[in-house]
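FYI - complex with pyridoxal-5'-phosphate, inputs then prediction.
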Amino acid sequence: MQDLPSPLPTSGWAAPGAGALLEISLGAIAANYGMLNARTGGATCAAVVKADAYGLGAQQVAPVLEKAGAKVFFVAHLEEGVRLRAHVSPTALIMVLHGPMPGTEQDFTRHGLWPVLNSMEQIAGWRAHARRVGSPLPAAIQLDTGMSRFGLSDADVGVLAADSTLLAGIATRLVMSHLACADTPDHPANAMQRARLLSMATRLPAAPLALSASSGIFLGPDYHLDLVRPGAALYGLTPDATRPNPLHPTVRLRARIVQVRTIGAGDGVGYGLTWRASGPRRIATLGIGYADGFLRHGADGGSAWLDDRRLPILGRISMDSTTIDVTDVPQAVLDATTHVDMIGPHHGVDDVARCAGTIGYEVLTALGSRFHRAYLPQAA
Ligand SMILES: *Cc1c(COP(=O)(O)O)cnc(C)c1O
C-alpha cells in the first residue's frame, strides 16, 4: 500500500491545493457590529452566531464580536451553544433560540447557557429543572406575535397570567418575538407584531423586550426596544434590498482557474451542453462548484469577475467546477491570473444571491468547507 500523502502544501494566497480561497474580514465584522451598536443607542446589541456564524466560523468570529462590545450571543441549538462557550469569556451570555428539548435542561446549566422558552412544555421542563436545582434559573420567553413559528400563543400567555406558579423558579430575563416582514419596511405586519409584543408582555413578569433582528433595526428606534439581535447585518448582508447597503462586505471568494481552452462555433459547454458557442470563445474552468455551496441555479446570469471585468458563467455549474467566458480578457492578463472573484468588490453576496434566485443568507450559510479559508485580522 502506498503511503498517504502529507497534507497538501499551501503557500499563502496561492493555496495551490484548494479550488477556491475564502477571505473573511474580521475587521469588517467588528466594524459592522460597531455600526449597529451605535445605531441602536441605548438598546443592548446582541450578536447572532448560529449556523457557525452564518458559515463564517463562530470560533473566529465570536471573540472578535465580543472584543467589539457584544456581551450577548444567540445560537439556534444547544450543541451550538456548548461549542460557542469555549470561544467567548465566561461572563458572555449565550442564549439558545430553540430552547431545551426535554431532558437537556441540565446541559444548559452545566454549560452556562440561557434557554429561550418557546412553549408551555419548555416552560414546564425549565420550571422542573429549577426546582431540582433549588434556585431560580434565568431564561428568555418567546412570544408568537404573528409568524406562527416559535413562541407562546396569546392563549398560553393567558394561562401563565392566571397561574403564577407556572413560572415559579424561572427568572424571566428577556421577553422576545421575531418579525416576519422586517425587510419590507411598510409592511403592516411590522407594527402589528410590535403592538402584540407590547400588549402580551404586560401579562408576563416585567422583563426587557426584544423584537428586531438585522432588518428590524433599520425600521427605526421604535423597533429597538431593550435588545436587538442582528445576524445577517454583522456579516454584511443588506437589511433592505431597496436601499444602498450601509454595511461593510465581510467575505471575498476567489476561485482558481484550473484550465483555459479555446472552442469554436457549435461547441457545447458543460453537462447537457446547454450552452453553445456561436463563434470562437476562450473558456476558463474554475475549481468551484455546487458542492462548495456555489448554487447550481446561479449559472443563469451569474458571473465571475476579474477586477471590474464581468466574466459570464457558461453552461451548468458542476459539482466541483464552473466554466466562464474569458474571451475578452487580454492574453497577457489571463496569463498572469490565477484566480477570479466569485464574491468580491464588484459582486457581493447579495448580488450572487440575486443571480441564483435566493437570498444572501442562503449563499453565505452554504459556502463550503473545501475552500482554503483566510481570516483577515482586525486593524490594530
Ligand atoms: C436568525 C435569527 C436572528 C438573526 O436574524 P438576521 O436576520 O440574520 O439578523 C434573530 N432572531 C432570531 C429569533 C433568529 O432566528
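The chain has two domains: 40-235, 251-376. The chain has a mean pLDDT of 94.
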